[in-house]
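Ticket #4471: complex job returned nothing on first submit. Input attached below:
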Amino acid sequence: MLSFESDYTEGACPEILRRLAETNLEQTPGYGLDPYCESAKERIRGAFGAPDADVFFLVGGTQTNSTVIASMLRDYEGVVAVRTGHIGVHESGAVEYTGHKVLTLPDHDGKMDAGELEDFIAAFMADETRDHMVFPGMVYISFPTEYGTIYSKAELEAIHEVCCGRSIPLFIDGARLGYGLTSGANDLRPEDIPELCEVFYVGGTKVGALFGEAVVFPHHGAPAHFFTTIKQHGALLAKGRMLGIQFDTLFTDDLYFKAARHANEMADLLNGIFLEKGYEVFIDSPTNQRFYVMPRERAVELHGKVRFEDWCPAGDGKVAVRFVTSWATPVENVLALRDLI
Amino acid sequence: MLSFESDYTEGACPEILRRLAETNLEQTPGYGLDPYCESAKERIRGAFGAPDADVFFLVGGTQTNSTVIASMLRDYEGVVAVRTGHIGVHESGAVEYTGHKVLTLPDHDGKMDAGELEDFIAAFMADETRDHMVFPGMVYISFPTEYGTIYSKAELEAIHEVCCGRSIPLFIDGARLGYGLTSGANDLRPEDIPELCEVFYVGGTKVGALFGEAVVFPHHGAPAHFFTTIKQHGALLAKGRMLGIQFDTLFTDDLYFKAARHANEMADLLNGIFLEKGYEVFIDSPTNQRFYVMPRERAVELHGKVRFEDWCPAGDGKVAVRFVTSWATPVENVLALRDLI
Amino acid sequence: MLSFESDYTEGACPEILRRLAETNLEQTPGYGLDPYCESAKERIRGAFGAPDADVFFLVGGTQTNSTVIASMLRDYEGVVAVRTGHIGVHESGAVEYTGHKVLTLPDHDGKMDAGELEDFIAAFMADETRDHMVFPGMVYISFPTEYGTIYSKAELEAIHEVCCGRSIPLFIDGARLGYGLTSGANDLRPEDIPELCEVFYVGGTKVGALFGEAVVFPHHGAPAHFFTTIKQHGALLAKGRMLGIQFDTLFTDDLYFKAARHANEMADLLNGIFLEKGYEVFIDSPTNQRFYVMPRERAVELHGKVRFEDWCPAGDGKVAVRFVTSWATPVENVLALRDLI
Amino acid sequence: MLSFESDYTEGACPEILRRLAETNLEQTPGYGLDPYCESAKERIRGAFGAPDADVFFLVGGTQTNSTVIASMLRDYEGVVAVRTGHIGVHESGAVEYTGHKVLTLPDHDGKMDAGELEDFIAAFMADETRDHMVFPGMVYISFPTEYGTIYSKAELEAIHEVCCGRSIPLFIDGARLGYGLTSGANDLRPEDIPELCEVFYVGGTKVGALFGEAVVFPHHGAPAHFFTTIKQHGALLAKGRMLGIQFDTLFTDDLYFKAARHANEMADLLNGIFLEKGYEVFIDSPTNQRFYVMPRERAVELHGKVRFEDWCPAGDGKVAVRFVTSWATPVENVLALRDLI
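Support reply: We reran it on our side without changes. The output follows.
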């Protein structure tokens, strides 16, 4: 059955499988201390214009979020995120499990507002009882967000300025970074990201890899002994070169961005079909996740023909639904939707 | 350069890569809710004679240890392990990071002694101050151990009997389980394992997979909501079928045990060479890790020709060294050692 | 300077100091294993009509909340509280520090609504992604609340019914329990409390003791080895009898309730004065904390004459202020306010 | 019945109770922000010759240990202690509960050896696998130790020198500090302590107070926002002045040291009696805890007449027993022992 359920339903870009096969019997040291990881790091530094960056490879997103956040917070600090942030909703309390509170702000189609962030921190600083409260010690945003929306350069600059003004690091969850940077609506260059945050990660799992996330601390900013922290969090892959080979391949010949761009193009095509058919857009996302409103009965019927996610109730017997494309989505699959919806 | 450094220096059994390639563009649900995982679980239940077992797939060993241990202990309990146990030495305090103490017993070539375990628990129970202490809530052993040694069936039965008598679950870390079960010195059948513990895992990372550990709770014994616990620990793979495909392949046509048996045979061959050359055995391991004593100068020189690990000082200017074979070790590599050592 | 800043500005009921002095040189075992603690437990069981209750003494409120909550949740569970609940705002993240998320509901003058609680849990249960979320494992309310408001018997029954229907324990933070039970607006008897929750505590610190909170698990419901959990949380007092003597005294001759009733009477008197002077009530509390709206300038001026807390901005250049009475507040102090405000 | 069970069987020095009574109805701010705490801090700075010290008051010893240790360690670090250290044995895993491992060294009558400490850290630094291990991030010793023994100035200097050389802070648990500093065998002045560690605490609970421990960071060394950390650990007393009044009293007219000296004198007297009666000394302690060997039957019989602790089996049907004196022990009680033992 056709599936637009998520961007992690398929395997990996064929180039990755090919290189895994080619290198299979080579013997290299474990834990990421191999030449493939070194090469991949260098390519990522190049792609993001951050020659001094510290780069680390972890396996998955939730793991990366809790490892990075815990490593950068002091015990008495929490992380600020919007109410719909992945860390606060769909990570089974992984951040709290490390002892830290997620402090929440309202979201605007998944995005944080710089002004609201400033107000929140200012109110905290002005509160005479703040020594009995959790200190905001980091700001977490996703690019793109849970809703596929993206920050403009101006919006991201505004948030980073607030963070700098308060000496609070900004962490960008880039689980779908590629889809954001190759969106037609995006005005950020890859080189802008390291300038506008203290740490971000380049998502592999959802953008063409079997698994893997590349954490980047621009300008040598990694916390002391971050390798050990990764190990302590159970996030250190023994055969670390599997991560190196994947990211080395993704950042060769621009594969990462080509794969992401394809997904966005398929999403644009899909969007045209939905609009043509008269569906109401639920959230106006410019990346590979698209959201529409449909009568619940229609959705129920459609679930028999194609896989997609019911996102949330949309009132009046309607439901918001999500369709997701990936690097692997064939154009025929999208076109096939025209007859189904 | 030739390497006997560890059993995770190569990729995966070629059968695994082949199936990853064959299935690459299929679309399946994430998080292990796919048919490959189901099939793999069924094969594992079959291989270990445990038709009612709950089976879960995680990515790596340290992660598996801390997730399983934390899920089965109450907050006031700790886990009992020998002094040289992996969880107490080489996991960067991952168990303590979840809030639990590792209570240590002496080791005997890496093994726990059932009598010492009984004495330890009996002493705890007899201690009038025990309410101010950490309760022993689980027993952790490795099969094979850190030193490649294995428990006889009688030894394992004795430990399990102590655990049952005290109502304390026994956890077997099987990161190298295959190498233990196919050792010539072993008298345990795969079906014995589920009978003699409350939880164990079948290591994939070190026995032919790219990564992956299969946690088995015999007789429906999984802790409530263990899926959520895996997620909370950052141990849930989004593209979960990668684990299913690997274990499904490993437990098809006995591949797992064949791969392990090959490594043991290569280790036996290697051992013959070391003995022939007059080296002293440091620890008498019957699996794929072998330990010898050599003059430090000889070891330094040898490091220029072949990769292996210096294990520990052995007195008198000598050093204990470790040589490890794997499912992938070619016989020529072992034979090449004869001229080098 | 006159102070209505809080109910923990003075020492303890003189009867307590007297008994501490009388018993000072007696020698008793530590850690609460003394006759005074036994007697105090028995008196508390009597006062709350819970002859089978397990009773434990801890030192302070934040400590009690995090110890009780952590002891009753599984790792994958969180505690549900209203947005203004003390555990979510003014305990420096003590609950998160133990690894658990505080799941928030809206508050209504500090209170939880049973319907909203039911909806929240129902929505969680209906959410197909719930295995990636934090499970609601306990419900936390305060009686009285942060705003001095109290639940009616019907309201508390409704909340408890939701909890029972979902098999989720209800925890009542009774840091100011005495003030609630002796309020003129209250329709709950002490004997009702054990019937309507799985655990509650009787606050001593804010109701006449130097310090101390008595945790009550009705019907033998204490978590296994709760003594050890208390110790692990650093909440076990070495000279435990200091807690026993205090609670034994408070629950002799009804002292606890008399002391609380006095504070409520002083608060009623104070309220009459504020109303007489034409102040607007901010939140209509029937206990020892009272909230009024006043122009910010007036508040600033008044701070020079009497201690009280600015609670929050109230719009239009106004501020909400809090005045608190205690068991120790002399009637003259209240009357003196008439000339100041 | 006569008791030599511990030094926390009685209440507090009468001077303390008197001042609690005198100040009882005063109104002061909570949480230690009162004049009594300020005065007490100043007196402690004076008594220990540390005019720039940051001083904080906590309630009990286990709480103080885990709060201080967690506040000074990074997540990947553990604390080094001897095998018999209180934090590793009798605190119910409170340190591990905060996520940190206790790394153990052998003890010598309860004491750490500087050479063994240096060797341990040197071995860690030389271990090529150290990035997979827990980093030693703090050293913990007690003065006096669990066995009542004390470090000479030279011994303490040697340990501190190792710590300084490795940039690892030294923490002295002074739960019984007074008894150590007033021992006839001691050659350390109070002013030496701040020079020879990065943090220590002055135990009140066991030296004349109802409860309370004063944490001292010499030279403004407190971790950032330590107040909030105390709150997060549930260790912040609402009526904080109770701690201030107690320590202010203890450090007025040398009461703290006088009380401790009395206990030591009583212990010397008791020791004379035991030696006169021909008992074998088990551990030669020069402070208020004394250890002797006696036949088990004799011990059983004696338990019917006087309270004391059986410490551990001493072989051959014998048992080591502990007798403890306190600031409150009357000379008649000690003399009464002559007829009993």
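Residues 207 and 260 of chain C are 6 Å apart (CA to CA). Closing as resolved unless it happens again.
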